[in-house]
UniProtKB/TrEMBL annotation:
Protein's recorded name: Phospholipase/Carboxylesterase
Keyword Signal included in the entry's annotation: yes
Keyword terms: Signal
Pfam family, one: Esterase
Domain of life, source organism: Bacteria
Keyword flag Oxidoreductase: no
InterPro entries: AB_hydrolase_fold, Esterase-like, Plant_Biomass_Hydrol_Est
Amino acid sequence: MNYKLSPFYIFLFIFSFGTKAQTTNDLLYEKKEFIVKSDTLLYRIMYPENFSESNQYPLVLFLHGAGERGNDNNTQLTHGSSLFASPENRLNYPAIVVFPQCPKNDYWANLSADRTVKPISFKFQNGGEPTKSLKLVMLLLDELLTKPYAKKNQIYVMGLSMGGMGTFEILSRRPTTFAAAIPICGGANPNTTKKYALNTELWIFHGAQDDVVNPQLSIEMVSSILAAGGTPNFTLFGKDNHNSWDSTFAEPNLLPWLFTRIKK
């Protein structure tokens, strides 16, 4: 006998599954505040199972996209947090994973944007003062790196969309810190790549049909890194629009590649 679920029960199943995943993330990622004088950075942090300060662990910094900005210290977990929180990945890749949250009136990268056109037209600065949010992230990172349990030769950064742009920017501002970086559907000023091209291994991702952040931005960054002597990995998903992070997180070699990058 065949049974057909009503749309209501299908919705209930999907909602229940999503709620369970979010609840798991809420439990695993501790809510924290990093305060510097009158400024506060909200962030979530997940420690490995059976965490011990006498051991050392890789550290992953994840920068979310513009849609996850806010002040709830929760929305930044929307994309990417489940990847690191799965039981299998926690077992195989024990790491300290940090998800800061950018407020709605700020960005990770120092840029201006013309949103009247599609894809959005971005103008990236080369140098200058970092945004307040990125400055706080770098100060938080500096503090975390003073901890004896942070493995200094396995510090990683990744991010999507606005966070992909922030990933490129933090590399240019901390060019000797990261063993590897994964910018997803991002971009930056190509002139900044010479600062880190020889110091950090990169795997850059974008969707060929992205109508929000032009894939040409990632192509230009790859070309500039190559010109500076770097050897980046680059994956362009032919059928993906802006949400190429879904295909990125489904890439089976993503975490094996990331956690085997060790800074010399």
